[in-house]
Design a protein that fits this description.
Length: about 700
C-alpha cells in the first residue's frame, strides 16, 4: 500500500471557500477512486489561505481487475452465412481489443448475439491519477471564480501543483502549470521553493521549512491558547465568537495573537458597536472582565513579528479611527429623535411599487396590533409603537456605517430616548433569526419579527418576486423559515392563512401582479416547502411529513404536534396494517367523491349488515374521545384510538359490499366512511402514507 499527496497552491483564497473545498476534494477523490476500483484506506484534506491538500493513505498501486462480458451486435449482423465475421463483427472485436478466437455466441431474451469476455482494470494507480487529478481540480466548485490562462477558471490563480505517489511525480498539466515535487511555504518566514522527496515528507517540510501550520484544528488550538494567556495579563477573558474564530483560522497559515489597547473613553459606546468595529472590520476579538468589555482587543496576525510593538500600534491606530467614527455617529444620533427619523423614512424606498419605509412602518404597526390582540393584549399600545419605530434606525448615522447593527441600534436608541422597554426589546430583536438558532427571546421581539417577515413575503409574492433555484435576493426563504422557527419556539397557535390575508389587505394602494388566488396558492406552497425542508432536515421521514402537511398546515405549531404524534405512531408494530386499512377508506372516499354525492348524515335504518352496524356503534362509542383528544391536542392518544377502531373497519370491508347496486345503501355506507375520514384527516392525510 502507498501514499498519495496532491497540493494545489494558489493566491490567497477567501476564507469562506476553504472549509467546503476540503470536504469537496476529499469526496470527489473518494467517489472517483471507487469508480476506478482503486482501493484506499482513508482520505484526509487540509487547507490554508494559499493551499489545498489531499492525502490518500494506503492506496493500492494498481486498479482491481475484473472479467466482464461485452455483448456486441446480433449474430445476423455480425456473421455471414459461412460463419465468418462481417465488417460489423470485425469492428466489434477490434473495438474490444481482443482476438477473433475470444469471440463467442450468446443467447439473450432478444435473440443471439456476438459477445466477448475481457479483463478490465489492472492499470497502475499512478496512471489513473494522471487523468484524475486535473479532472477533479477543474470540477471544484466556487461561489465565484477567476479566469486566466486559456480561460481556465478557479477560485484564485493557481501558482503551483505538487503531486506525489510515494516518491514518484504524478505527471499532468493544468492552468499552464506542470505538476512537480516542489512546494512553497509562508510568504515571509519560509518562502521556498522546497523539494519534497516523498509524499510522506510534505507536512514536515511545510512545518519545519515553510513555517506552515497545516491542520485547521492546530491553528485554532494555538490561537485559543495564546489568546487566553494574553487576556490573563490584563485580568480579562477573550470574548470568543465561534464564526469569527473559524474565519480567522482560515485567514492565516502561522497564527500569532497580539493584544492591543484602545482609549477607555470609547467604552461609553454600546458593547454591540465596539464588538462590531473589532469583529467585522478588524477580524479581532473583544476582551471582557465581569461580563463587561475592557479597553483591549485581540487580533491575529499571520507571522512571527520582528517588531511586535510597531505592528500592535498599527492595529490600534486603525481601530481608533473606526471608534472615533462610531463615537461621532453615536453622539449625532442621540441628538436626533424617532419622530424626525420617521419623517425621513418617507424618502427611503422599501421595494419599488411597495412604497416607502414609512408606509411599511405603518403596516408593521397594524400587524403588531393584529398579533398583539391574540398573544399580548396587555401591551397592545407598546406593540403598535414598536412596529411604527422598527425601521427608524435605517436612517441613523450609526446604521448607515454599520449596516449589520440594524434593529440592534434601534433598540438601543429606543432605551436611551425613553421608549418603553417592550418597544426597545421588540425593535432590538426583530431581525432575528439571522442564522441557525439565535431566535428572539422576548414575545414582543418574536411578534415584531413575524410581522416584519410576513409583510416582506406578502409584498414580494404579490409582485411575483418568488425565489427560483439559488436566486433569493430578498432572503424570502430565510424569512419564511424564520416565521416557522419563531412560531414553533414560542408555541404560537396562529392561523397562517389569516395572517397572510390580513397582511395582504394592508397593501390597499399597491397594484399586485398576481391575483389573490394565485398569490395565496404560491405563498402557501412556499411555506409548505419550507416546512417540508425543515422537518426532513430534523430527521422526520418524508411520508410522515407529507401526511401531517396533507391534513393542514395553517396552524404551524399544531401541525408540528401532529407530526410528532404521527412519528411516534409510525414506530408501533401495528402501524403498517393500520395505515393500509385507513388509507383504503381515504382512497375510496376520494375516488367516489368525484362521481357522486353522499348523504349529509348516516341513516341508521339503512344499516342492514351486522358488520356495518358494529362499525357504526364503535364510531359512536369513540366519537366523544376523538373530539376530546382533538380539542386538547392529544394527537398521540387520538391515533392510538385507530388501533381500537381498525378491527371493526376490517370486519366491515370483509363482510359488507360498499359499492352495492342499491343507491341508498351505497350512499349510506360511503357517508359512514366519509364521516370517519372527516375526523381522521384533521390529524393526517393517510393517503400520503406509503407502506
Amino acid at each position: 500500500m502507498s501514499l498519495f499527496v496532491l497540493e494545489i497552491g494558489f493566491e490567497e483564497m477567501p476564507a469562506r471557500f476553504l472549509k467546503k473545498l476540503e470536504k469537496d476534494i476529499a469526496g470527489m477523490f473518494s467517489n472517483y477512486l471507487k469508480e476506478k476500483k482503486v482501493y484506499f484506506n482513508n482520505i484526509q484534506s487540509y487547507s490554508t489561505p494559499r493551499r489545498l491538500i489531499v492525502l490518500i493513505n494506503n492506496i493500492a498501486s494498481k486498479q482491481e481487475t475484473e472479467i466482464i462480458e461485452v455483448i456486441g451486435p446480433p449474430l445476423k449482423i455480425a456473421k455471414k452465412e459461412d460463419g465468418s465475421l462481417t465488417k460489423a463483427g470485425l469492428g466489434f472485436i477490434k473495438s474490444q481489443g481482443v482476438s477473433f478466437e475470444d469471440a463467442y455466441e450468446v443467447e439473450t431474451s432478444k435473440g443471439s448475439y456476438l459477445a466477448v469476455k475481457k479483463q478490465i482494470g489492472g492499470q497502475d494507480t499512478i496512471i489513473v491519477l494522471q487523468s484524475l487529478c486535473p479532472k477533479i481540480i477543474e470540477n471544484l466548485h466556487f461561489p465565484k471564480k477567476m479566469r486566466w490562462v486559456d480561460n481556465f477558471t478557479f477560485g484564485r490563480p493557481i501558482r503551483w501543483v505538487l503531486a506525489l505517489f510515494e516518491d514518484k511525480i504524478v505527471n499532468f498539466q493544468i492552468a499552464g502549470l506542470k505538476s512537480s515535487n516542489i512546494t512553497y511555504g509562508h510568504r515571509v518566514m519560509g518562502k521556498g521553493p522546497f523539494k519534497v522527496e516523498h509524499a510522506s515528507e510534505l507536512s514536515n517540510v511545510l512545518e519545519t521549512k515553510g513555517k506552515i501550520i497545516l491542520n485547521f484544528e492546530e491553528r485554532k488550538k494555538n490561537i485559543l491558547h495564546q489568546g487566553n494567556l494574553l487576556a490573563k495579563q490584563v485580568e480579562g477573558e477573550i470574548a470568543w465568537k465561534n464564526s469569527l474564530l473559524e474565519e480567522v483560522c482560515y485567514l492565516v497559515e502561522y497564527p500569532k495573537p497580539i493584544l492591543g489597547k484602545f482609549d477607555e473613553k470609547f467604552l461609553e459606546l454600546p458593547e454591540e458597536v465596539l464588538l462590531m468595529s473589532m469583529e467585522s472590520h478588524q477580524k479581532s476579538f473583544g476582551v471582557k472582565a465581569n461580563n463587561k468589555l475592557l479597553p483591549y482587543f485581540l487580533t491575529i496576525i499571520n507571522l512571527e513579528p520582528e517588531k511586535k510593538d510597531i505592528i500592535q500600534k498599527g492595529w490600534e491606530r486603525v481601530l481608533k479611527a473606526r471608534l472615533e467614527d462610531a463615537s461621532f455617529f453615536w453622539h449625532t444620533d442621540l441628538k436626533s429623535s424617532f419622530n424626525k427619523w420617521l419623517q425621513q423614512l418617507e424618502k427611503v424606498t422599501f421595494l419599488g411599487p411597495l412604497g416607502s419605509m414609512r408606509q411599511k412602518a405603518t403596516r408593521l404597526s397594524m400587524l403588531m396590533e393584529y398579533l398583539g390582540k391574540k398573544f399580548y393584549p396587555q401591551k397592545l399600545s407598546e406593540l403598535k409603537r414598536a412596529g411604527l419605530l422598527a425601521k427608524c434606525d435605517l436612517v441613523s448615522e450609526m446604521v448607515g456605517e454599520f449596516a449589520d447593527l440594524e434593529g440592534i441600534m434601534g433598540g438601543i436608541y429606543a432605551r436611551k430616548m425613553g421608549e418603553d422597554p417592550v418597544v426597545a426589546t421588540a425593535i432590538y430583536e426583530h431581525y432575528l433569526p439571522k442564522g441557525q438558532g439565535n431566535l428572539p427571546q422576548s414575545l414582543e421581539g418574536a411578534l415584531l419579527s413575524i410581522a416584519d417577515k410576513i409583510d416582506t413575503l406578502v409584498g414580494c409574492f404579490g409582485l411575483n418576486i418568488i425565489p427560483t433555484g439559488a436566486a433569493d435576493p430578498y432572503a424570502l426563504r430565510r424569512n419564511a423559515l424564520g416565521i416557522i422557527q419563531i412560531v414553533l419556539d414560542k408555541q404560537l397557535s396562529l392561523s397562517l392563512s389569516n395572517l397572510i390575508s390580513y397582511s395582504y389587505d394592508l397593501y390597499e394602494n399597491v397594484e399586485f401582479k398576481l391575483n389573490k388566488k394565485e398569490f395565496f396558492d404560491k405563498l402557501n406552497d412556499f411555506f409548505a416547502q419550507r416546512l417540508k425542508y425543515l422537518w426532513q432536515e430534523q430527521g422526520f421521514k418524508s411520508q410522515i411529513v407529507e401526511a401531517a402537511l396533507g391534513a393542514s398546515f395553517d396552524n404551524i405549531f399544531d401541525t408540528f404536534l401532529r407530526l410528532k404524534a404521527l412519528n411516534e405512531f409510525s414506530k408501533q408494530a401495528e402501524f403498517e396494517t393500520a395505515v393500509l386499512t385507513f388509507k383504503r377508506v381515504s382512497n375510496i372516499i376520494k375516488k367516489q367523491a368525484k362521481q357522486e354525492t353522499f348523504f349529509t348524515e348516516i341513516n341508521v335504518d339503512l344499516l342492514e349488515e351486522p358488520a356495518e352496524q358494529r362499525l357504526y356503534e364503535k364510531l359512536k362509542e369513540l366519537e366523544t374521545k376523538f373530539k376530546q383528544f382533538l380539542t386538547s391536542k392529544k394527537y398521540k392518544e387520538f391515533l392510538n384510538l385507530l388501533l381500537e377502531l381498525k378491527p371493526f373497519v376490517d370486519d366491515f370491508f370483509d363482510n359488507v359490499m360498499v359499492m352495492c347496486e342499491n343507491e341508498n345503501l351505497r350512499k349510506n355506507r360511503l357517508t359512514m366512511l366519509k364521516s370517519m375520514t372527516n375526523t381522521l384527516e384533521i390529524v393526517a392525510d393517510f393517503a400520503a402514507l406509503q407502506v
